[in-house]
Amino acid sequence: MFLHFPSTTPSRSGFRVVPMAQITYNPFNNVETVYEEPGEKWEADLEWFFLTQAESRDFRTFLNKHVNYGRFYLRDSAHENLGSWGGTIQVDGANQDGRILAIKNATASKAIAPAGDRFTLDGFLYELTEDATANSSGKATLKFTPELRTRPVSGTALIKSDPYGTFMLKTPASIPTFSRTRLGARDMSLSFVEALRP
Asked: This protein's superkingdom (predicted)?
């Protein structure tokens, strides 16, 4: 378990999955060859135009605790799930991996969520790549990115409200100086990358 990043809503928020695919071109006919490799990661850039004195103090204290690539939970406050995610959705079966997950206990015969919705499982963030609908037994298969970071235990609940992932500072040297006036700090930006180590 890790601490959650301060909840002060950023002025700008950008989350993306950075792929590891590589591409080469045939020098004779310029036809491309794509090599899809595992290892894609979430990255995020957040920016705050203004922080109060109290907010900037909270940020400075939190960042000082995590300056050496410490891990924490981070959510995208600009993202909002559109699906109902009805039921008590849990992992259905052990030894699952890849970009597909069998789930159970969703509301039977109902749409679960559209592509683009996100969920948290075992502290990691995932985004659906296809719409998901439960069958008459409340079961479904979720397709998403990135690939599963762990093999989840059957029965583990999915977090679908305010989903978050495990991140660290992308470059600790980029921590702002928090130059400020009596009113607060201005123009603070931070970059993050998904943390995968055990």
From this structure: Bacteria
Residue 173 has pLDDT above 80, yes or no: no
Alpha-carbon span 55 to 177, nearest angstrom: 14
pLDDT for position 86: 98
Instruction: Kindly tell me if the per-residue pLDDT of 111 is higher than 90.
Output: yes
Only one residue has tokens 């990661």, namely: 41
**Counting Cβ atoms within 10 Å, is residue 100 exposed (0-12), middle (13-18) or buried (19+)?**
middle
Q: What is the DSSP string of 163-193?
A: -EEEEEES-GGG-----B-SSEEEEEEEEEE
- How far apart CA 164 and CA 169 sit, in angstroms, is 15
- Whole-structure pTM value: 0.91
